[in-house]
Amino acid sequence: MRLIRLVSFFVAVTGTLLLAQTSTPTPPPQSARQALLEMFLGKGENDFTKHLPETAHQALIHKGDSPETNVILKISTIGRQMVAGGERLESFETGPNLLVSEQNNGHEKYEIAVEHDTLLGEDDEIELSVHYYKDGQLQSLPVVPRLIFTLRQEKEIWRLTEVTAAVHAPLTDPDYLKGLRKDQNESNETAAQNRVTVMGMAEGNYANRHPDRGYACALATLVAAEPGAMPGESGFVYDPGQGNEEWSGYRFALTGCEGTPAAKYRITAVPLESDAGMKTFCADESGAFKFVTTGKSSSCFTRGQPVNAPQAPASSED
Q: Does 254 map to a domain?
């Protein structure tokens, strides 16, 4: 009896092992998120088109079309082109991010975050947003772009039925508003710096054209085009501020050009809001172009730091 039981046990175990070796486990069904990744990163020829609704496939893709001639097929190659171009691109089937791309030797990073992945009846709605990092720091964007993909399962295949593009601007988020204001201030600073450069060049050209007058003593006089002057000629000044003293968050002024002919001048660009944290710029006939981050505009000429030079620690006004 013991021998019979041992033989029976051996036969049962052997049969189980053989069955395990010959049977192929059924793969789990593909999720909507996996289908979305396959559409844009899959290497198969039909990985993108098989997830399109049949009506869209028939209407938008015809025989003989290629990524060079068909916009839809061109979209399908974007992910593969990024990888082929050497960009470090990582995808995730679960977790808070769908894609992460590192560029510029890791100094820049883009995250495609999953805001939600929700089943709504027969549909699966996946909302994605974009986040940009520079040297590890999250950068503020004027608006946060968002894409909403709606997929529906047909014959065990998730098909993309709708794409919605939207922008998100969280106007009650203090951090978002602070970042937005910072970006605007930096833009204003750049505009003011460029305009002071234009004014300084215009002063030199004006004095050369009018040696009896010297430097111009009024902004309107400085930027006024000479009769008959054409763009690109010394008598034509392209002023981005169009002669206005107040422009792009700054007040511009010309001073110190007394005398006939005027041998000196001073240009200042002062923030209209003293608490905005923006730089004050100044320039004069010596060619010096400086800025200060605190203090009065007069201190810019005596204690200012040259523009485009390494910035020294800020000091308070005496």
A: yes
Contact of 254 with 266, CB cutoff 8 Å: yes
Q: Which domain holds residue 245?
A: 189-306
Asked if 140 and 213 sit in the same domain, the reply is no
* 210 lies in the same domain as 131: no
pLDDT range class, residue 270, cuts 50, 70, 90: very high
Does pLDDT of 14 surpass 50?
no
Q: Which of 141, 171, 201 is the last residue of a domain?
A: 171
